[in-house]
Amino acid sequence: ERDLRVRGARGADARVEATRALGNELSARARARDEWIAPWIQDVMQDVRFAARLLMRDRAFATTVVVVLGLGIGVNNIFFTVAYAHTLRGLPIDRAERVVHISTLDDRGTDRPLSLSTFAELQRSGLRFTAIAAFHNAPLILGDERRAPDRVDGAYVSARAFGLLGVKSILGRSFTADDDRAGAPMVVMLGNAAWQSRYGGESAVVGRSILVNGLPASVIGIVPDRSGFPSTAGAWLPLAHVAETTANAPTVQVFGRVRDEVDLVDARSEIEAIIERALQPPATAALIVRTTADARVTEAVLRGELLALDAGLPLYRLATMAAVIDEAEWGVRMSVVLVHILTLLALGLSGVGLYAVTAYAVGQRTQEIGLRVALSARSQQVRRLIFGRALAQMALGLGLGILGALGWDRAFADGQPDVSVSDPASLVMVAAVLVAVMCVACFVPARRATRLDPIVALRHE
Question: 22, 28 in Cβ contact below 8 A?
């Protein structure tokens, strides 16, 4: 148009001539869009706009879909994260297949740690290992003049543990042989999490003296996150600081790196022979006393009597049987709580999913419901129609679930009389809970269906 005006054409004539040559503005934009944007991108954008319009027509259904997808993706992400951290992701160790864990088995076939004396015997034996190390888990109390004391998960590790695993300090250095000997000045390494939370990530903390279990210790280094093995702890001390009274008690986890030229089967045979020679009768015993007196009074009396028998006898712990059982069952209780949480999540997802399906079905049958209402159908009949469909789906799901439970019971619970997923009372209770969830999920769609205007419903597309 501008070129035509330069050549002498009048404004209106120039615009008409330009439109005749190039087409109108909308067609020009369409051609430009086809040139600038790939056709498949245009198709995707068109589909997105169409989906957005459909969702905006039924906002309740759209909200339900978004919530279900969000919960489903979130729960699956949690499961994958846990599975990846504990199963799929390997140990943060260089050539982990050459690192072996050394332990013994008790009469029940349960893994037991080794004693410090057995670990010392393994070190002296000249095994075909590039290195052998040990660690012992124990809580530690960190304190200093500037902050209140904190209780953290702690570990005692031998000097070669971090080097064996290839764990390098973020700041400072790791333990040396001089640190891990009797009478050496106490030094401590802090975990990255404890360093960040307690000291704000100050680099000046390395070299500072702090209190560990009330004793002064110099901070020599910071251990990175996800050391994971030998222990995920907030603070580490040299193994030499473990009480000498535990020398013959099974307290330390031992691991070593086998030399490349040594076969793992040969190394295992040699280890078993050395441990068999080093094992000694247990030096610990448990005394169980039944009393009607107060626990604190009983503790004072027992300590006095035992010290009277042997003044050098170490007393590790005195606790009620209820406390011992409670501590032993803590892991089981946490597992049960986790199962309950996952069950509630699954139940909630099932209820939201059932609501979404029912709401969608009601939307699809809007004209049918409107016609029924126009033909004098009562509200009870409409509700019966909605709930009947949902009940049929629920009955099918319950039937398949009961068959699966019976198959599980036969395959996995055989020989365990206290475990049965096919107990009639349990099945009836589960069915009642699911029916209640179904009724709650169907209430809103059924209520909406009974309030449909027949005229509007018959015009619904």
Answer: yes
Cα–Cα distance between 48 and 98 in angstroms, integer?
A: 53
Cis peptide preceding 250, ω within 30 of 0: no
CB 230 within 8 A of CB 160: no
SS3 119: helix
Instruction: For residues 250 and 115, give the distance between their C-alpha atoms in angstroms, rounded to a whole number.
Output: 4
Residue type, 343: T
111 backbone dihedrals φ, ψ, rounded to 5°: -60, 135
Pairing of strands 250-258, 99-102: antiparallel
Cβ contact 146:73 at 8 Å: no
Instruction: Please list the alpha-helical segments (H only) found in 365-415.
Output: 366-374, 379-412
> In terms of Cα–Cα distance, which of 233, 216, 239 is closest to 113?
239
Strands of 74-128 (E only): list them. 99-102, 104-105, 111-112, 114-115
- For residue 245, pLDDT over 50 is answered with no
Task: Residue 182: name the closest of 164, 161, 159 by CA.
Answer: 159
Residue 345, phi-psi category: left (phi > 0), alpha (psi -120 to 50), beta (remainder): alpha
> Which tokens hold the place of 313?
């006898």
Does the predicted model carry a pTM greater than 0.85?
A: no
Find where tokens 């004693």 sit.
115
CA 113 – CA 225 distance, rounded (Å): 25
Tokens 């439970």 correspond to 405
Q: pLDDT tens-digit profile of 74-117?
A: 777 777 776 666 555 656 666 777 888 888 776 666 677 888 87
3-state class (DSSP) for residue 170: coil
- Tokens linked to 95: 């050539």
Instruction: Quote the CA–CA distance of 100 and 127 in Å, as a whole number.
Output: 13
Is the distance from CB of 380 to CB of 450 less than 8 angstroms? Answer: no
Sign of CA dihedral 444, 450, 456, 458: positive
Comparing 137-141, 347-351, 415-419, the range with the smallest average pLDDT is: 415-419
**Strand (E) or helix (H) holding 217:** strand 215-223
State the pLDDT confidence band at 218, using cuts at 50, 70 and 90.
Answer: very high
